[in-house]
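Dear H.,

Thanks for agreeing to be a second pair of eyes. The structure we're designing against is below in token form, covering all 166 positions.
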């Protein structure tokens, strides 16, 4: 008596993305501020090009997101010596993103172009800063800047982020 073995193969229509997105050797982008960008309320910088590998075949979005934060101070207009901390910090956010179509990715690889960025932190109103009333004025304390080089595939699925604090 012969035994007959029947195998069933289930084929799914789902295409799986790459399992291991990463940067190639010496292909990790590096971000840095411009020479005078960390003083005052304006910030600028740039990130070098990158070489990514292990990607899927969907659109790839990359670029820079950045945030600036500063404490606020409320100054009494009638009594200039009276200065109190504001209740809310001043915050600015910035994003500059580029998309590479999935059809342009070659064998799971992508060249990421350099990115330059620039943005400013404005002084909030007395209400936004949380000062007691409009008889006060607002100044900013020291500003901290954080830039993130981000890679999404597909957007908004974050596959990598590199953070730089200035």
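And this is the sequence the design step returned. I haven't edited it by hand at all.
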């Amino acid at each position: 008596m012969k035994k007959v073995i029947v195998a069933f193969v289930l084929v799914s229509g789902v295409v799986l993305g790459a399992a291991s997105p990463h940067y190639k050797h010496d292909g990790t982008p590096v971000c840095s501020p411009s020479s005078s960008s960390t003083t005052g309320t304006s910030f600028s910088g740039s990130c070098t090009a990158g070489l990514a590998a292990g990607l899927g075949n969907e659109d790839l979005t990359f670029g820079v997101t950045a945030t600036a934060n500063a404490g606020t101070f409320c100054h009494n207009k009638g009594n200039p010596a009276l200065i109190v901390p504001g209740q809310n910090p001043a915050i600015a956010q910035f994003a500059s993103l580029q998309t590479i179509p999935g059809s342009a990715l070659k064998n799971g690889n992508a060249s990421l172009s350099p990115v330059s960025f620039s943005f400013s932190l404005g002084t909030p109103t007395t209400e936004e800063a949380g000062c007691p009333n409009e008889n006060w004025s607002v100044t900013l304390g020291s500003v901290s800047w954080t830039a993130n080089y981000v890679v999404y595939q597909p957007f908004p699925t974050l596959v990598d982020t590199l953070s730089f604090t200035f």
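Two observations from my side: The helical segments are 126-129. The CA atoms of residues 60 and 153 lie 5 Å apart.

Warmly,
E.
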